[in-house]
Design a protein that fits this description.
binds flavin-adenine dinucleotide; 14 strands; four-stranded antiparallel β-sheet; alpha+beta; 12 helices; Enolase-like, domain 1
């Protein structure tokens, strides 16, 4: 059962941030509530004040930047809104497809992308793909805003670089160029994913000129594997090159044991999913970039 608490509905980011800054540990941002309310029911968190940020105008917007080079997602956009957005489906279909697989439709309707990223539960999908896509997160507060690369946002189990009074207002995703393909792969046996891999591959004249590989869920936070990325540069996008990169991922990820999977099993999953993501991103008709 939930304990006693108050709710306030600020009209702006500055107002919401000021309330949290003033109340300290007493107050938390409240978006879809799909994680927060579970913690509160379990009495693991007992905030006196929920700062409802859902009604702040514009924070759920999904649009292109004025130059049409980046996709801008408001931190309050729900998984369902991203999944169903005609714009996202057109310019970045792999992101829409990833969102389709998150949780169940009830959670996707209420849960927001910002809530997912800020909660930083290791068994989550979006951060891994956003790291591979080189996204940036805008953290806004009463005193201004700063941009954090997706790869630097989560620093450990349920921990990010966000200050309590900073609100994740926007996610900026540079749209992949015509020569770049994107693929996201996940595996799950329970409610949330056990392991995931995202890859972007840029191929010019039959040679890989850029690669990004991110692995999620196997460790405390999603991470890139630069050694595996570097191994692909200058190679033809072949099964042998992909297998060599996937072997590096298996050897270099830092898995955490959990009740569902041993470290060895997680290494195996990381390798397999990397191989699948690279194979799809490297196939002439595989992966997606929407162009
Ligand atoms: C049954 C179930 C299955 C799930 N399966 C998956 C899955 O397969 N893949 C996956 O990726 N996820 C999964 N999830 C997680 C789900 O995606 C998240 O619960 C959801 O996105 C959280 O968003 P929310 O808006 O409900 O956050 P809330 O619960 O409202 O907030 C979560 C935390 O983030 C803070 N917060 C929220 N929004 C912001 C913001 N904009 N700025 C700063 N801080 C903020 C809150 O203060 C709180 O600490 C699952 C969840 C459930 C309950």
């Amino acid at each position: 059962m939930l304990g006693q608490f108050d709710i306030c509905r600020p009209g702006s980011v500055a107002e919401a941030s000021a309330v949290v800054a003033e109340r300290g540990d007493d107050a938390v941002f409240y978006a879809g509530g799909t994680e927060l309310l579970i913690l509160m029911k379990e009495r693991l968190l007992e905030p006196a004040l929920l700062v409802d940020i859902k009604t702040i105008p514009g924070l759920d917007a999904i649009a292109l930047d004025p130059g049409g080079r980046s996709l801008l997602l408001g931190g309050l956009a729900t998984h369902r809104a991203v999944e169903r957005s005609p714009l996202v489906r057109e310019v970045l279909p792999e992101l829409a497809a990833m969102e389709t697989a998150v949780a169940n439709v009830r959670v996707r309707h209420a849960g927001t992308l910002g809530g997912n990223l800020c909660f930083a539960e290791p068994h989550s999908d979006p951060a891994t793909l956003l790291i591979a896509l080189d996204a940036a997160f805008t953290l806004a507060s009463a005193s201004g805003a700063r941009d954090v690369p997706a790869a630097d946002f989560c620093v450990g189990f349920l921990t990010t670089v966000r200050e309590p009074e900073e609100l994740l207002a926007r996610i900026t995703i540079p749209l992949p160029g015509a020569a770049t393909r994107v693929a996201y792969e996940r595996f799950k046996t329970h409610e949330r994913p056990d392991a995931s891999a995202a890859a972007t591959l840029t191929v010019d004249d039959g040679v890989v000129t850029d690669a990004r590989i991110a692995i999620g869920c196997v460790g405390e936070r999603p991470t890139r594997v630069p050694e595996a990325e570097r191994a692909l540069i200058g190679q033809a996008p072949s099964p042998d090159a992909f297998a060599a990169a996937a072997d590096l991922v298996r050897d270099l990820v830092e898995p955490t044991e959990d009740p569902f999977a041993s470290s060895d099993y997680k290494r195996h999953l990381a390798r397999t999913l990397t191989l699948r993501a690279l194979a799809r991103a490297g196939a002439a008709d595989g992966g997606t970039n929407g162009r």
